[in-house]
Every structure is written in structure tokens, then in C-alpha cells.
């Protein structure tokens, strides 16, 4: 978490628009549906957030 905090601070200092989320209880690779780590709820929420961010900032 400390590395994520430092990364977020660096992006803010550089004026970069970003959003970051932590999905409690989800393992690394939670979006990969070919492994036991797959977390469907977290994967769906993260994808919805990704598409919303793209639609807001990249259209």
C-alpha cells in the first residue's frame, strides 16, 4: 500500500488525472477468469469503472 500511496502522490504532483481503487478481499489477478483467483464481482466493478473513466477522459 505504501508504494501505491507514493505512486498516487507522484501522479498528483505531475498533474495526471487518475483514479485508483483497492478491491478488498480480491487477490492479484482477480480479473483473470481462468484462475481460482477470479472474483466476478470485483472484476465487473473494476471494468465498469474503467469504461466510465475512459468515457469521461478519453472521448
Plain-language structure description:
The chain has 59 residues and is mostly helical. It has one domain. It is built from 2 helices and no strands. The protein has helices at 2-13, 40-57. The model has no long low-confidence stretch (mean pLDDT 95).
Note the main attributes of this structure.
single chain; 59 residues; mainly alpha; 2 helices
**What is the tally of helical segments?**
2
Total DSSP E strands: 0
Determine Rg (CA atoms, Å). 13 Å
The helix fraction, in percent, is 40-55%
Question: Assembly type of the shown chains?
Answer: single chain
Distance between the termini: 31 Å
Shape: flat
How many structural domains does the protein architecture include? 1
Question: Uncertain segments of ≥5 residues (pLDDT<50)?
Answer: none
Average pLDDT over all residues: 95
Strand content: under 5%
Instruction: Give me the strand/helix succession.
Output: HH
- Main beta sheet: strand number and arrangement? none
Secondary structural class = mainly alpha
Amino acid at each position: 500500500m505504501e508504494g501505491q500511496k507514493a505512486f498516487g502522490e507522484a501522479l498528483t504532483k505531475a498533474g495526471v488525472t487518475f483514479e485508483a481503487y483497492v478491491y478488498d478481499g480480491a487477490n492479484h489477478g482477480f480479473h483473470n477468469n481462468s484462475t481460482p483467483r477470479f472474483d466476478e464481482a470485483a472484476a465487473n466493478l473494476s471494468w465498469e469503472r474503467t469504461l466510465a473513466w475512459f468515457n469521461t477522459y478519453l472521448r
